[in-house]
Amino acid sequence: MKLISATVSNYRIHKETSVDFNSGLTLISGPNESGKSTLAEAIHRALFFRAKAGGESREQMNSVWGEPPRVTLRFEVGGKAVTLAKTYRGGRGECTLNVAGEGGLSGDAAEERLAELLKSGAPVGGQGAGTLLLKRWAHLWVWQGLAGTSPTRAVAEEQDTLVQRLQGAGGAAVMQSELDARVFRGIQMRRDSLFTDNGAVRKACDLAKAEDELRAMQSLLAERQQAVQALEEAVARHSRASDTITEKTRALEAGDRERIETERKLRESEELIRARDPIIRRMQDATSGIEELEGIANELASARQARDDAAKALAPMTDRIRTLKDDLEDSRGHLRETEGEWEVARTAAATARAWRTALESQLLLLQRTRERRALEIVLGRIAATREEQLAIRAEIARTPSVDRADLVELGELSHEVIAADAAVSSLGARIEIVESREPITVGGDPLAVGGWITVTRDTDVQIGATATLRIKPGNDTSLVGARQTAADARRKIEAKLTELCVTSPAEAGDVYMKRQELLAKDAALQKELDRLDAEGNAAALDACQKACEEAALRASLAARECGNALPSDPAVVQAAAGEAADACRLAEQAERDLDAALKVARERCGNAEDAYVQANAAASDLQRRDRDALVRIETVEDRHGSDDSRATRMLELRARRDEASAELAVLQRRVDDLQPDQLRTDLSRLEGAVEQARNAIEMANVERAAAAERLRLSGTTDPRVDLETARAAVDRAARRHGELRDQAAALQYLACVAEDVQRSVTERINAPLEDAVKGYLECVFGPGASAKLAGALQSGDSPELLIMREPAGLGTFNFGELSGGTREQVGIAMRLAMAEVLASDHDGCLPIVLDDSFANSDPGRVSALQRMLYRAAQRGLQIIVLTCTPSDYGTLGASEVRLSRPVLSQHMAPRPSAPEATSPAPDAEPPGKAIDGGDTAVFLEKLRERGGSSGNMGLREALGWSQEQYDGVKKTLLASGMIVLGQGRGGTVRLA
User: Cα–Cα–Cα angle for 147, 151, 155, nearest 5°?
Assistant: First the structure.
């Protein structure tokens, strides 16, 4: 199916608009409120909205011209040219359809044949038609603001057809029959009756009951086994208890004998350990004395070595001190000479800098003086412009305040007078003289043969001197009303003219034009004043004046400092400033060189002083160390005696230590032989063993008595017979449970196989659509971009759309996670792919209508999208793009149709129900009072605060204005070009 042309008449703001469509790419452009979206809606409703439908959807189509809406379409379908015409007038609506080779149809027959040709549902009409129309071909008609919605939901009405086409393209080999579907559902129902969603067994099923029975039998078997085991354990415990009593009695007797012998040996070892203590104390005292004498000897040796070292180092230090002193005197003399030279250079450099500063200040003074004169000229122009503006504004104040609303009111009153006079004439009686021999007068005025006159009130007709007729024209009441209407309208015109201080409507028009010219001149003068920037230039003049004063002061002070007279000629000053700068550079270089030499001399002098001080300090330190060592030697010898006396005492202490060590070794060998630690461990072990044997005998007696009592109470019944019975019951329950478990496992396996088959069918059905959309996505996102449907279209649901950009390293995203602009791109790509698949049912072609579908895409993205749209056209689709920014599609290669904003006459206004009337047309005069110039400034400031762009409702609420005041100011700013309407239907404004 391919659109050829459309003509829309009396449809909302369209008086009569005709459009021809290219078979591939068509671009329909125009400013806001030019009717682009209305044109797309008219074509869509002609295809799907019943001509005889009524209700709100029908009322929304009304135009401002009062005629019924009419849409005529020419398109091709099935290789035949078709002409469709629909006139919407409620129950009297008309529909005609002419198919080449078939003849013409009208009424319901035409509507039914149209639905057959389009392969769509019955024409929409009645209550809820607005909602139903949005669903009809929603995958092809992308209404404004809906491009970013899920495309798989938009194809709901065509989903079965889409699945059939996809099956034919890629899934025919695995198509399911109705029997397959019933078997699959039966397997799922049986599996769901046994298992929950998480795989757990349902409580009420046979498998769960078998599991409960098996657990009950296993519990009974465990009880029987415990009874038999308890009897057997009682016999074994009685036997073990008797053996334990005999064994532990023998162990108790042996343990008592070994414990007594161990206690004797432990007492002997403790007596030997006590005998060691005095010997150990003697040995420790001798060792302490030896260590003290050795420390004294080491201290004396260290002090004597320190004296020798100090004496060796002190001898050469004296010669070095004399040499350093001579070097210090030479450095100080050189420093005094360098300081004198530096002072002379510093004075010369200061004088050169002062002269350079004086000349530079003089040059700056001359420059600022020229700038001040230029600013004074600009301020003079500003003053003259202000005087002219005051004169214009005074003339505006003297001009009567006539606005467009006044002219409209006068025009409407004039129309009322004309209409009333016409009504009076239509109700009057026409008197025409065909033939007469007598003179005839009508209302006292003669009327000749062949003449005629219309009378609108009772009038006497005199025929000669003998006959008088009285003519009473029309309905007296209607004539009186018409005359009264005309008189009232004339009085209102006079009152309005008096109010406006003019004498006629024509003069009112002249005054209005004059006032508009004066306002335009005032705005131009204000713009000139803004450009001249009076405040900025005044501030600049003040700053320039201050700069002149400061430069003059600096020049005077600097010239006085160096004692030279300043020239006044700029060229002389410029040349002198250059020479002064060169002289200053040379003087400053000399000053820097001497400053560096002075630093070197000071550093050399400082280094010499540091070396001299350090050498004296080192000599003093050596002398102090020699004295300290001598004092240490004398102190130690006075306290501890001479070297000979200390050597004799050392020999005595070593002899006593050796004697005590030999005695201690003999005692230690005897103690080691007894091993007292091991004896204490053995004693603890034996005491525990004896206690354990006593406890074991006591517990064995108790255990034997308990076992005997258990055997007595067991009775005469054999528990082994009950055990065998329980085992047989468990076997039966286990066999039943195994059978049901195997059946359930088989059912689960069948369900998994069926789901795998269903998943494979879904993937093969979805594959052609995924392959188709991949080509479109690569046009926008580059190689490797692809899409996948996470679900089955044949189930009737809307599967989630996944976008994969793995080659670009961006991963996989759900459609809902994408940004607004990316959702628009992906959504259009999927719609194009679905249209490409469905086109096989429509002669290989379907139209795609994009109504400002890329509101969230910048021009760069739109440029990339053009590759996708061009690809769709190359593959047989018909692309129709509606936009208010045709420059974004300059490289699309589409046939362009430009719409202009319709111009309505003054007595016409768009109906409130029309969607195109969400904001006033730029040429509509705002109602109410005249606009205050301060309001426009407030409007613009608030718009800048909101980033330069805002929705009308949000901006009006932020300003706190009424709708009347907001619309008036907005109109004024639109007319001046200071703001423009945003994209779409004018719901936003932005700074120009």
Answer: 120
